[in-house]
Specification:
32% of the residues lie in helices and 31% in strands. By secondary structure, the protein is an alpha/beta fold.
């Protein structure tokens, strides 16, 4: 039976996804709550990592070491930094990059991590499964960027978009990618877009979007588990 670790940054998304499972067993590892669930022939381990790269990397390593997962799935929200990506769109990560990793003073290219690289590829088989999932909203695949800073200024987002070719920005995915890359664990990052600096008439608050996003994430995960 395949074991899949699913990492959420926020409790609301985890709680909504838990609803698709009937039997749930709770584990506690280093005070991190992990929910073991079964869906058909798949065992899932759900965890709320908390925000930021360190929290996400910690949760990833715990799922690998303590739960022996075969695959890591990271789902959550992100902000658009592309004029082609709008609020409530979904972005499938083809590659992940850490836009705030900077060793340029040592003559390294911005974002390049020694012995890892600049971009880390999501597992192509998982990407293909995700591309075949049907959602009511627009689904796009491309580069997702991560950093320990909330990007709210249009100029900063545009700079990251131009530098890395990224479609959206968040705070966890690329650190999950790095841990999985170093541990040879297939992974996939999926993001629902919570905001866009290019949409001036946004009428949804973040709290309202979080409810929509949590439902989107839950439905995506259920379809994904049925195809893996």
């Amino acid at each position: 039976m395949k074991k899949i670790g699913i990492i959420f940054a926020m409790k609301e998304e985890l709680d909504e996804t838990k609803k698709i499972f009937k039997e749930i067993k709770e584990h506690s590892v280093y005070e991190l709550k992990i929910y073991e669930c079964k869906y058909k022939n798949v065992t899932c381990f759900l965890v709320e990592s908390g925000m930021g790269k360190v929290n996400a990397a910690r949760s990833t390593q715990i799922l690998i070491d303590k739960m022996n997962v075969d695959v890591i799935l990271n789902v959550g929200v992100a902000g658009s930094i592309s004029r082609n990506i709008n609020k409530c769109d979904i972005v499938i990560g083809e590659k992940l990059v850490q836009h705030d990793f900077d060793l340029t003073l040592l003559n390294f290219e911005k974002g390049l991590i020694p012995n890892v690289g600049k971009y880390i590829d999501c597992d192509q088989k998982l990407v293909n499964i995700a591309k075949n999932i049907k959602m009511e909203t627009k689904v796009t695949s491309g580069i997702i960027s991560s950093g320990d800073i909330f990007i709210s200024e249009e100029k900063m987002g545009a700079k990251i978009n131009k530098k890395f070719g990224a479609l959206c920005v968040e705070m966890e995915g690329a650190s999950i990618a790095q841990v999985c890359h170093l541990c040879n664990i297939p992974f996939l990052v999926i993001r629902a877009i919570s905001d866009s600096p290019y949409e001036k008439d946004n009428h949804l608050t973040f709290e309202e979007f979080l409810k929509i996003s949590s439902d989107m994430v839950s439905r995506f995960v259920e379809q994904f588990l049925g195809k893996i």
